[in-house]
Amino acid sequence: MSFKTILVAGASRGIGLAVAEHLVSQSNRLLTVSRTAAPFGEWIQADLSELADVTTVAKTIGDDPLDALLYMGGTWETHAFTSQYSFEECSDADIAQVIAVNLVAPIRLVKVLLPALRQSENPKIIFMGALSGRDNFPGREVANSASKFGLRGVVHSLREELRSQQISVTVINPGNVGTPEVLADLAAENLLGGEAIPLTDLLIIIDCILSLSRATCIKEIDVPAMLGKGA
After folding, report:
1. Which of 15, 171, 172, 217 lies at 20 to 30 Å from 101 by C-alpha?
2. pTM
């Protein structure tokens, strides 16, 4: 695959970092967005929970077509996914930040980048959701689950809004993903949820979505580990 311009949000660590590294050789221009430095592509320092920084990203792209927007960023409450998590002990600031980063920021980012996406010959939008946003998933993290449920709603609505323009919108809902950080936490028994899916499997799924023609749209993909929680 070859793309002119790709933007990866949340590219300084975890899934976003791996996605940026994977796609850097497949694009003429890779834009990476994060608060802390991203080692791949053209880094844009931005806190996407701030509207001014969202606007900065749009200005950086300028008049270039945007072939793919991948929102890989995300955050969660203090002690989330551990036995120490307690909803009652979550601060209001913690809850607000999770909703701002996981739900409000991607909505704003898509809105400002639609003009650039419309210029692409085969535009794609991919959001990183989570199994915790699926019905009946046994997760306790209230703000994170709410944000991931909401992200699914965003995808379904954008699908209808952008259908006539043939802009593909997909949300991927994985369980634990085998980034170095997650594997270390699982090994130390600091993380609940069981087995992790291999990071390479997730990258293959992203490649598949990006390679589809403009005539096809995958709205949702659920990706539990075979032996993981929620499978």
Report:
1. 217
2. 0.92
Distances (CA, A) of 203 to 47, 124, 157, 206, 212: 25, 15, 25, 5, 15
> Cβ contacts of residue 51 below 8 Å, gap of 6+?
108
Taking only the tens place, the pLDDT of each residue in 33-82 is 999 999 999 999 999 999 999 999 999 998 899 999 999 988 877 887 77
DSSP state of 48: T
**Domains of the chain, each with CATH number or no CATH:** 3-223 (3.40.50.720)
How far apart CA 69 and CA 27 sit, in angstroms, is 12
SS3 219: coil
Report the C-alpha gap between 179 and 182 in whole angstroms.
Answer: 5
Q: What is the DSSP letter of 212?
A: S
User: How far, in Å, CA of 195 to CA of 225, rounded?
Assistant: 6
Question: First CA to last CA across the chain, in angstroms?
Answer: 31
Strands 27-34 and 3-9: parallel
Give the separation between CA 185 and CA 180, rounded to whole angstroms. 9
Question: 32: closest CA among 22, 17, 47?
Answer: 17
**b/e sequence 170-189, b meaning 16+ C-beta within 10 Å:** bbbbbbbbbbeebeebbeee
